[in-house]
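Researcher: Here's the sequence for the chain we discussed earlier.
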Amino acid sequence: MSNIKIKPLHDYVFIEAKASENITASGIIILDSAKEKSQKGKVLAFGNGIENKKINVSINDNVLYGKY
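Model: Thanks. This is the structure I predict for it:
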């Protein structure tokens, strides 16, 4: 997705979610049915912000985001 042609509006950010890990740091294997959706990702594009608020991210920044 290096040649992205999507430009979010206002204060929206377009994020590519990172794949969740299959094995924990302690070596426990996590099944697909027990995995939670990843909340980590990489910023691919962002809008111009709104009124007097600028967005404080850059392209390729690693971010954490909310589920909803």
